[in-house]
Amino acid sequence: MTDNRFSSLSVDAEDTSTGNLSRKLEKMKRVQERNPTTGRAIKIQELENIVNPPPKSIPVKTSKNNKKNHKKLEKEKEKQRLYHERMVEKEKKRHKKEEEDRKREQDYEEYKKDMKDKEDERKRRKLMSDSYAMEQIDKFKDHKLLDEFVNLKMRDLKYCILMVLDWLGYPNEIIRLIMSKVKKTMLDIPIKLFIQPDIYDYIRRKYKNNKTERTLKLKYHPDKTNGKTNQLYIFLHNIMNEKIEL
Questions:
Q1: 3-state secondary structure of 122
Q2: At 46, which helix (H) or strand (E)?
Q3: pLDDT at residue 61, as a whole number
Q4: What is the pLDDT of residues 55-88, one digit of tens each?
Q5: What pLDDT does 60 receive?
Q6: Which of 37, 38, 29 lies closest to 6 in space, CA to CA?
Q7: Residue 134 vs residues 125, 130, 139, 206: alpha-carbon distances, Å
Q8: Considering only CA atoms, which of 21, 16, 14 is closest in space to residue 37?
Q9: Burial category of 236 from C-beta neighbours within 10 Å (exposed 0-12, middle 13-18, buried 19 and up)
């Protein structure tokens, strides 16, 4: 193929004919179609790249980015796992505390019930033992024993009463009447109130205790009290004979 002798002039005229690159490109393409040249083809390609540049390529994620995203994902997963474990542990502790509180309350209620049952049993036994004691007292008491108790009590009170009456200026006749009235009043007092606590405690028991009996006999023997407890000793001896041998 022979070159057109006017081709160079056409290109120069084409280059200066317009400032619009798109129109210039179209003109060059039309000229190239009629009279193709290598130089023009190169210029067309250069201009094509300027007017219609190729789209930018989307960068492909590299393995480095993949590793970074993978680490980020793993970190998030680990964070969620730790959070879940904390919540599970917190819930376990809450359930454990509730269970401990329920058990503590249950134990306390059982303890209160047990203490109430024991107290009721103690009261029941006391009532039974007091009832048994009164049966024994009523069985062996007599007026001689009561007189002895009253006389012993009067000896303790007589001096104090006489001192008060004398200080108040009462004549002897009135004092004797008052003392007689006091004694009669004391005779109306239940005999149980005169019995010594250690003796009454033993009366409540149904079973014999030799050690306790020896102690009481030595303590209230008439030889130890200058004859003040003759009736009490007889009463005590009768009570002891009623005890059941173990």
A1: helix
A2: helix 38-51
A3: 54
A4: 666 555 555 666 777 788 888 888 888 888 888 8
A5: 55
A6: 37
A7: 14, 6, 8, 12
A8: 14
A9: buried
Per-residue confidence (pLDDT) for residue 221, from 0 to 100: 93
Q: How far is CA 110 from each of CA 51, 115, 124, rounded to the nearest angstrom? A: 96, 9, 21
Asked if residues 207 and 246 have their Cβ atoms less than 8 Å apart, the reply is: yes
Question: Is residue 29 helix, strand or coil?
Answer: helix
The pLDDT tens digits for 199-229 are 999 998 888 899 999 999 999 999 998 888 8
Token look-up 């210029």 returns 43
CA distance linking residue 86 with residue 60, whole number of Å: 39
Residue matched to tokens 């009768």: 238
Q: Would the pTM count as exceeding 0.70?
A: no
DSSP code of residue 56: P
Number of H helices, E strands in the chain: 9, 0
Q: How far apart (Å, rounded) are the C-alpha atoms in residues 1 and 122?
A: 137
| pLDDT value for 212 | 92
Which residue is listed with tokens 């006999």? 217
Q: How far apart are CA 46 and CA 39, in angstroms?
A: 11
Identify the three-state secondary structure at position 205: coil
Q: Which amino acid is at 163?
A: M
Asked whether 32 and 44 are in contact (CB, 8 A), the reply is yes
SS3 207: strand
Q: Could you tell me the two tokens for 119?
A: 């107290």
Q: What percent of the chain has pLDDT over 70?
A: 83
Q: Where are the domains of the chain?
A: 7-51, 130-242
**How many whole angstroms from its chain centre is CA 238?**
57
Q: Is a pLDDT exceeding 50 seen at residue 24?
A: yes
